[in-house]
Amino acid sequence: MATFLDAGAVGKRPVLRDVQPTSRAAARSKVALSMYTDLPDGEIAIEEFERFAMDRLRVLKGIDDLKVKGFRPDQMQEKVIELYEKHMSASSREERQRKDVVSHFVLRLAYCRTEDLRRWLIAQECDLFRARFREMLPSEQKAFMEANELPFRPLGRPDFEEVREQLAAVAASLGQALASSALRRGDVPHDNYYKVPFEQVPDLVGGRKVYLQAGYAYVSKDQMSSLVVQPFRAALSKALVVTARRWAAVVAPEEADRLTPVVESLSQRYLGPDYSDPEKRGVVGTVSAGDIPRLVRESFPLCMASMYQASWALHDSHHLKHEGRMQFGLFLKGIGLPLEEAIRFWRTEMAPVAPGEKFDKQYLYNVRHNYGKEGNRKDYTPYTCMKIIGSTPGVGQVHGCPYKTFSQESLRAALARLQVAPTKIEEACNKAKAGHFQLACAAAWEGKHGCACDTGINHPNQARACYYAESRRVLDQEQQAAGGQPGGQAGAAAAAAGTGGQPYTPGPQTATRQLQNALGSNGPQPDSAPAKMQRVG
Amino acid sequence: MSGEQAGAGPMATDFNNMGVQDMMKLYYSRLFPHQEMYKWLAYGNDGKHPKSDGTFFQRREFCFTLDGDIFVRYQSFKDGGEMAAALKDRCPSKIDIGPVYNVDPQRRAAYQGSGQGFSPLERELVFDIDLTDYDDVRTCGKEGHICGKCWPLMAAAIKILDAGLRQDFGFQHVFFVYSGRRGVHCWVCDERARKLTDEQRSAIANYFAVYKGQERGVAKLALSLDDHPAIARAYELLREAFEQRILPEQRLLEDEQQAQAVLAYLPNDAIREEVQRRWQHRSGSEERWEALVEAVEEEADALEVQGRKRQGGGDAPRAAGKAMRKALKDIVCAYTYPRLDMEVSKKMNHLLKAPFCVHPKTGKVCVPIDPDHAWEFDPDAVCTVGGLLNQLNSSSGGAVQGEEPWRATDMSQAVDTFRACFLDELQAEVKAGLAEKARQAAAEPTLAW
Ligand code: SF4
Ligand SMILES: [Zn+2]
Predict the structure, then answer these.
(1) Is B362 found in the same domain as B315?
(2) Tens digit of each residue's pLDDT (9 = 90 or more) over A133-150
(3) Final residue before a domain boundary, out of B285, B318, B336
């Protein structure tokens, strides 16, 4: 597929197209939802280019926020549609469609350049797509599938009868008692189900939400959105890789002074600067091995602090297995511990079990590996909360998110050890119990820093909504207020902050940041908090 | 070649006393089934068939662990001959198998950053199960330990995986290998499996992941009140395994701590007390289990009767009855459901130890396991490199001309299992596939694409 703007489709130059619109394309253009296989027609002014993209970003960011707040995909439907209506509306149906397609293609350009950006875009776009598909009437869904030649055919009666019992069992296992008994009674029409290769519905397979037989998954009509989102995801993921290559090879050099700055700033709008690379953040070298014990006390999230503090965990190579060492090691890298210091740190920590040469043999490789200096030289990025929460430690292992894995008593004890205020310990425990791990973590953060955590926590140490960087930011402010006393606990922030459940009144700094987060203004704001996060360590 | 030299003629050494590493040279020159390994990993692309892909094998990554724990990644070989020569020459203490890349991994540097890039294209779907992950439910030993009493846990895992992979996912070319120490590896080699994306691999791993780690002192299980058909099938098998092998052999209900751990799965204190009351005069694991099952089922029956009597009063008691019965399922699954090392399965480019490797500490050979005889497999009786060399030594007079030397040793059974359970069928399919390709190509008048 010729990528949008391949040879400069913006401005006064015409869009280059290698295919004429076909009748399929005409059919597609009648459906509101798009697989984005067709390039936008006509010309796009650069102002439009940016404005459309910004509006779409607001939607995607909103979706991301919902997830950070703990909404599951099936609980977000209404909110996602609301967001879309709010930001993507236009004067006519055609305009609306054009805005949808143009903004999507622009964001492809802006978010194709790194693995992290691509992953973020794919995740949000898929959620948006799923919600929009679900919102359509059955007849519209059908038209959409036909127009896009999605090869899904309903089950024939004999096939259906053969597996009806099992389909009923699956429905029951999903807690759908009514659907299950309807199936058992024979009250469900056979064409309510589709039979597809299991590869097409990984999410349904992984959640054991479908019946599987001989490589086929039996998908019900209600699960159709999973089916449709799959080709969408695959196509988008492929297109992004292609776009990245073309961007680097063709577009970027040609458009260096016109498009490139716009596109690059777009990708930083919401994610902030490229936090995946500590070097670019300028934090490398700001932390040394000797600082770690203090930082553990002051600013480590519970997942990392408990891995450090349960010293048996670090000291017994068996228990802090590969996963744990990755989780913790990459975190340290992310806060700016350079490789040499990391080696120093691990050598000291492992000395009881792996002195001298033994360390060099067994662990040095791993430490260097985390820094991309061994093996496939991949520069590993620190784990997100999602990833940490998703990993479940086996017996005696200590990685993972403590809000999920600890018993209530151990959680309470661990938070007390971290000197979290008692009311907040209760709040954190309750949130954890209810399954809101990141909210629990934010509560603990608040109980430790004595001020509100208005960003939420979705990463132990990178980007926005990050436990560590937020902590350093607040502590550094305190330090300045207290005249540079290291670790000064008194301070403006604590006084300014509400306690317990009281609403928090944002100070001028956070107000700016909130504004920026809400994207009220687009210009660079060098004094705003996120920019500052880069410098603290 | 020096390896050949050393391997020839009768030897006076008793290999049981020699270090494993010292024996590896002989192992690779006399015992390792080079041919079979190549036949497997070439998937018919051995250059003999016109439709085969001559670059395929060369693009596969091997990783050697050399003496002193040095990893040498991105090794690749033109063909079986080159691979055999490298093994004999370098004697890796471990061979790991990686993915097939888009280009020869040795030449990856030339492609990195180019438009084409360097990326994995395909790789068998693999699983890794290790007894160390069962330490909380093993009474016979911990960590590196393995014995006939804890083996049934591995056998159960093999059964569950084998059934699921074949019946649910439709895979046919599946084999299991003893990992050399305390676990089992599974390789799924169907073309469809090799082409899976990372996301699809994760999905399959999750499909099998009923055991989700430990949480608050008990196993966290992804079980619902009503069973998915795959879970129902697994439970039937596991309940039998639990009652007939694991419970008696692990003596699970005999020590106080273990018994308490089992009771923790029951839904409330009342039933726990009731079970303990019934246990007072019973001490054997089996009779205690019977008592527990009886108590739970009586209670569940009572709740259900209560539910039926109550006119239109909602079905809370019935649900409670169901939950009561589910506790039995929870116990069985917590103690026996396969505990997979998920990370191994999720990524296409995860390395996994090759079959027929020798474990550097135990000297045991990573032999294939016939899933139909998984229960009878004895990890203590697995052939060791020393034992094989001794057999070779005493038989070397009678070796048949032209036959591989390992035919005279127990390696021959291991290779036979590999062929019978896996390789022969794979090869037949690969051949048929290539013939079909050739036929289609002949029938196609033009290149329509
Ligand atoms: S929520 Fe994130 S930062 Fe907090 S403990 Fe869990 S994984 Fe760590
Ligand atoms: Zn044992």
Answers:
(1) no
(2) 988 887 888 888 888 888
(3) B336
Closest-CA distance, A183 to chain B, in angstroms, reads: 15
Residues B156 and B278 in one domain: no
Same domain, B283 and B361: no
Q: Which of B68, B170, B199 sits opposite A202 (nearest CB)?
A: B199
Residues B384 and B235 in one domain: no
The whole-number average pLDDT for the span A372-394 is 73
Q: For residues B303 and B124, what is the distance between their CA atoms, to the nearest angstrom?
A: 49
Residues B18, B71 within the same domain: yes
Q: What percent of chain B has pLDDT over 90?
A: 63
Quote the DSSP letter at residue A126: H
pLDDT band at B88 (very low <50, low <70, confident <90, very high): very high
Neighbours of A392 (CB within 10 A): 20
- The domain spanning residue B387 has which CATH number? 3.90.920.10
User: Domain check: are B155 and B243 in the same one?
Assistant: no
Residue B81 lies in a domain: yes
pLDDT at B286 over 80: yes
pLDDT in tens, A465-501: 678 877 887 777 776 666 543 333 333 332 222 223 3
Asked whether residue B448 is domain-assigned, the answer is: no
Strand order in the sheet with A193-197: A193-197, A216-220, A211-213
- ipTM of the complex, rounded to two decimals: 0.90
**A3-28: per-residue pLDDT in tens?**
334 423 333 333 333 334 456 666 66
B89 is catalytic: no
Catalytic hit among B36, B61, B122, B410? B61
> Is pLDDT of B275 > 60?
yes
Could B232 and A169 be called an inter-chain contact, meaning their C-beta atoms sit closer than 8 Å?
yes
Q: What tens digit of pLDDT does each residue of B207-224 get? A: 999 988 877 778 888 888
B269 is catalytic: no
Maximum separation of any 2 CA atoms in chain B, in Å: 88
Domain that holds residue B46: 3-206+340-440
For residue B241, name the pLDDT band (cuts at 50, 70, 90). very high
DSSP letters spanning A376-399: T---PPPPPHHHHHH----TT---
On whether residue B449 sits in a domain, the answer given is: no
| B128 is known as an active-site residue | yes
Residue B224 within any structural domain of the chain: yes
Of B336, B351, B381, which one is at a domain's C-terminal end?
A: B336
Q: State the pTM of this model.
A: 0.67
Task: Please provide the size of chain B in residues.
Answer: 449
Residues B154 and B229 in one domain: no
- Residues B324 and B366 occupy one common structural domain: no
Model pLDDT for residues A245-260, shown as the tens digit of each residue: 877 776 666 666 667 7
Chosen from A165, A199, A211 to mutate, greatest number of chain B CBs within 10 A? A199
Query: Is the CB of A385 inside a 6 Å radius of any atom of ligand 1?
Result: yes
The residues, ordered by sequence, that sit 6+ positions from A287 with a Cβ below 8 Å of its Cβ are: A295, A332, A335, A336, A337, A341, A537
Report the separation in Å between the CA atom of A457 and the middle of ligand 1, taken as the mean of its atom positions.
7
Cβ–Cβ gap B212/A405 under 8 Å: no
Can you tell me the distance from the alpha carbon of B151 to that of B138, in angstroms, rounded to the nearest whole number? 10
Top residue of B226, B233, B341 to mutate, by most chain A CBs within 10 Å, is: B226
- Quote the CA–CA distance of B387 and A10 in Å, as a whole number: 74
Single out the catalytic residue among B96, B128, B133, B330.
Answer: B128
Q: How far apart are CA A410 and CA A400, in angstroms?
A: 14
SS3 B71: strand
Q: How far apart are CA B177 and CA B187, in angstroms?
A: 8
Q: What is the pLDDT of residue B99?
A: 96
Token pair of A513 as six digits? 């940041």
CA geometry: angle B327, B333, B338, nearest 5 deg: 165
Any ligand 1 atom below 6 A from CB of A302: yes
Q: How many domains does chain B have?
A: 2
